[in-house]
Design brief:
about 375 residues, 18 strands, binds zinc ion
Length: about 375
């Protein structure tokens, strides 16, 4: 990223925050939170505190950072070093990112790109560029409608798991688009606030269906062809009930006495029941009780899209609703970008060329290092 690009991004973000600071959403108890930010082209600044939303907004407009963060934890003294802050509890937060969900389109749109000769190809990245033999290559991950739809599906699954299995009130869950490739779910339920990292790992593992032990008796009775109602109560509020319900509605359960064949037996059906209901949350995010999270209503540092509240997952359009930057045409030199759609406009593909595109699309490429201001 060159200086002209950094200057342009900073000016664009500053203008947005100056004009549209009302969009920034502040959590309760501001004075007990740790704030942080990432300047364009610089390292992370943490351990900041503000007494009010107005004070924080003034600093955001002044700095115009690439990213703004705030802790989900409350502290006695948020500006002290971590071990002296006095941790008082933290809201439960989940992160669902399309890059953690395997979608078939990734093979098409995730590529390596050679900075020396502009060659590109499918992942995995070779050690050296097959065209120029240099090793100056970068992996470029992209996101498409299919990826974002998958992330949305996993957000819906998470809401189902939390409300049905953990009795969380739907009104206690706030869903945000992350501003990049996925969703953040914030849970305001005081039962979770005091939990430490170990308990949060258990919750993350539960929703991911990780390390699940299926009782042998359940499997045996299914194999003997016992009626599902007798093997596990269908109203069980955990994974056993979920699996039983899935199997009771599955059209092709293996016949009684059927030999367990690879991929076609009871275990395959159970795995399908689990795989279709798990939510691929990032466990490291849920577990970290000292983390600072992107603030709702601020711009993502790699896309220029807004982290924004999602009122209805079904009707939310992640490639147009979070577009808040202007559409003045900006001239940029693009190293490489596959075709992408933003705000209903299809752009690219671009390869080593100068183009004039709307500011929101220019930021989308500049902030990811795929283009420079020309
Ligand atoms: Zn090359
Ligand atoms: Zn995709």
């Amino acid at each position: 990223m060159n200086w002209d690009t950094i200057r342009f991004l900073k000016a664009t973000y500053k203008e947005h925050y100056f004009r549209d600071s009302d969009r920034i959403e502040f959590p309760s108890k501001i004075e007990e939170r740790e704030f942080g930010y990432m300047p364009f082209g610089g390292g992370m600044v943490r351990h900041l505190t503000f007494r009010s939303a107005g004070e924080a907004v003034a600093e955001i407009v002044r700095q115009a950072p690439s990213s703004v963060y705030c802790s989900n934890a409350l502290y006695d003294s948020p500006s002290l070093p971590m071990e002296e802050k006095g941790w008082k509890g933290a809201e439960l937060i989940f992160d669902i990112d399309a890059s953690d969900i395997s979608t078939p389109c990734k093979r098409e749109h995730d590529v390596w790109f050679c900075h020396d000769c502009s060659s590109k190809g499918r992942l995995p990245r070779p050690q050296r560029c097959p065209n120029c033999a240099k090793a100056n290559m970068e992996e470029i991950q992209n996101v498409c409608e299919v990826c974002l739809e998958a992330a949305k599906d996993h957000a819906s699954r998470l809401i189902r798991l939390l409300t049905e299995d953990f009795s969380v009130q739907p009104s206690a869950i706030t869903t945000y688009f992350s501003g990049n490739r996925g969703y953040h779910l914030h849970v305001q339920d005081s039962r979770f606030d005091p939990l430490g990292a170990v308990s949060r790992t258990e919750i993350a593992d539960y929703v991911r269906g990780a390390g699940m032990l299926i009782p042998q008796g359940f499997v045996l009775s299914l194999r003997r062809g016992q009626r599902l109602e007798e093997t596990a109560p269908l109203d069980n509020r955990g994974w056993l009930g979920r699996i039983a319900k899935f199997l009771s509605s599955a059209p092709s359960l293996p016949q009684p006495e059927a030999k367990e064949k690879k991929g076609d037996g009871i275990h395959a059906h159970i795995n399908r029941a689990i795989e279709s209901q798990v939510s691929h949350v990032d466990p490291s995010v849920t577990t970290d009780i000292h983390r600072v999270f992107r603030m709702p209503g601020t711009l993502h540092g790699s896309t220029g899209l807004l982290k924004m509240k999602v009122k209805s997952l079904d009707s939310f359009k992640p490639l147009s609703d979070p577009v808040v930057l202007g559409s003045t045409r900006i001239k940029v030199t693009v190293k490489y970008s596959p075709q992408f759609t933003l705000n209903g406009e299809r752009l690219g593909p671009f390869k080593s060329e100068s183009v004039s595109i709307p500011a929101y699309a220019a930021v989308y490429l500049l902030a990811r290092g795929l283009a420079e201001v020309s």
